[in-house]
Amino acid sequence: MRRWILVRFSLLVCKPNQPNIYPNRRIPRVLGWNCIDNPNSPNFGHPNPDPVYYPAHRQWSQTNPLCWGPDTRVMWHGTGKPGGTDCINLAVTYKDIIFDLATPGCDAGPIGCYKVLRQWTVLDWCTSLVGGHNQIIKVVDAEGPNILYPDSSRVNMETWTCTGRWDVPPAWIVDNCSNELHYTVEVENGTELGNEVSGYVVVNMPEGLQNGYIICYRLLWKYI
Questions:
Q1: Over the stretch 83-105, which tens digit does the pLDDT of each residue have?
Q2: Residue of 22, 46, 147, 209 with fewest CB within 10 Å of its CB?
Q3: Phi and psi of 9, rounded to 5°?
Q4: Closest alpha carbon to 164 in 196, 223, 208
């Protein structure tokens, strides 16, 4: 459901006489899932049941259908809809009910994490029969943040105790979804003091090589 990936589509070169596999033939990849971007829709921002396709390749034409044509290569997946909805005798509509899954008090960003109960209703105009189907869609940020931090650090020894003291520089953490980021510091040998606001200090570290970790939401570890 992320639609801000830039694709240099105009530079894709198709080799129509080669097998339909990479690298002999370059095929645009699926970028993910798409959302409803019509601001006038009551379901604006919700997962889109319909896929979004790449434009026809510049070498394609109706008289010389090389590579791929319109509505052939999926750019963004859709979540799908009940089968048979293309029949002109069927009227299909749906209603979304949203269940928020974000952690209380956490700013999960403009999209957040939630579940959608999509209630489909199908009316057969010929028989006046009405059917329905419930579809559950879960929208989550399954990819953790990126932690930018050195792979190693040199730690000085305390003068009187001959133990190591590590004044941990703040970690640089980036995430393209959540507006709120938190992290902790853990070591295998030593005592962790402080917090992400005032800063972390690790004391009582024995001599030798030690292992430390920058941990973000218990989802991502940076080994140091």
A1: 777 788 889 999 999 998 876 66
A2: 209
A3: -60, -35
A4: 208
